[in-house]
Specification:
The protein has about 270 residues and is an alpha+beta fold. The protein folds into two domains: about 15-135, no CATH class; about 155-265, Nucleotidyltransferase, domain 5, CATH 3.30.420. About 35% of the residues lie in helices and about 25% in strands. The chain has eight helices and twelve strands. The chain has a five-stranded mixed beta sheet. Strands 1-2-3 form a three-stranded antiparallel beta sheet, covered by helices on one side. It has a two-stranded antiparallel sheet with strand order 4-5. A hairpin with a 5-residue loop joins strand 7 (about 175-185) and strand 8 (about 190-195). The chain is elongated, with a radius of gyration of 28 Å.
Length: about 270
């Protein structure tokens, strides 16, 4: 998908590594048009046409695009306020990324833009069709997996004491998602995160999500090159019921009974 026209030959294109180095500022659309008037004039100069030039402004999300031509159809030019990268206006992609990475929401930032009378892209474009699904989420996932792999390799063959806890997207309410995180007690580095949708658990009960996420995450860590010596959690009843499935083996490492190895869980 692209938010630029295929026939556009005048748009500045930049490399991905140059996108974050580009500076931005708030500019009035009327001042941009005033500058274009000064540069290109009001009269068509093609073949001594002499007709009045008509300037038309449109917006591609946050990007101002101006076209000008005369009544005879002579094309005067086209100018865009943002360069493109991978056929995307870089300002749109950077704003969408900044919303996610700063922990903000589309609605809150949209209200800010409305108050300032700034142009904004649609919610569907942000959530579903392009920015998050095709660009932002895959990059974040890859960064997390690379970082997690590095943390696991640093602790290969070493004893690790884990602390674990879960959080719902709607605390105190019927939540749809639960994120369970395991951290190294010594360094406080996150070693594993699992997200569970309520539709994945038996009976679609949100109270069961934390147990499912805990078990899935611990199973992954048990199979890692680390030696899991102890797991410390809160007193969650669903997780406490899992204790019978885990135990210490003869070497003292944390393993699972169903795999003839086992684990030790300490619930506080």
């Amino acid at each position: 998908m692209s938010d630029t026209h295929a026939a556009d030959q005048e748009v500045t294109r930049i490399l991905p590594e140059d996108v974050v180095q580009t500076e931005y500022c708030i500019v009035s659309s009327s001042k941009v048009l005033e500058l274009l008037y000064r540069l290109h004039g009001h009269i068509c100069s093609r073949n001594e046409c002499g007709r009045q030039l008509s300037y038309q402004q449109t917006y591609v999300g946050t990007c101002l695009v101006v076209n000008w031509k005369c009544s005879a159809g002579h094309f005067g030019g086209r100018w865009a306020a943002q360069p493109t990268c991978s056929n995307l206006r870089v300002g749109n992609l950077l704003l969408a990324s900044a919303i996610v990475l700063s922990g903000n929401s589309f609605t809150k930032i949209g209200f800010l833009f409305k108050v300032l009378n700034l142009k904004y892209f649609s919610k569907n474009l942000f959530n579903q069709y392009m920015y998050q699904n095709l660009f932002i989420a895959p990059v974040i996932d890859k960064y997390w997996e690379d970082m997690k792999e590095e943390l696991w390799e640093e602790r290969a063959g070493k004893d690790v004491v884990l602390s674990g806890d879960g959080g719902n997207d709607s605390p105190g309410h019927c939540a749809q998602y639960c994120t369970y995180s395991f951290a190294d007690m010594e360094s406080q580095s996150i070693l594993q995160m699992n997200i569970v949708d309520v539709r994945e658990v038996e009976g679609r009960k949100s109270t069961k999500m934390e147990r499912v996420a805990f078990e899935s995450g611990l199973d992954s860590l048990i199979l890692s090159p680390m030696v899991i010596k102890e797991v410390v959690t809160d007193g969650h009843l669903e997780i406490s019921s899992l204790m019978s499935k885990y135990m210490f083996d003869f070497s003292g490492c944390c393993v699972k009974l169903s795999k003839n190895i086992g684990a030790f869980i300490h619930a506080k």
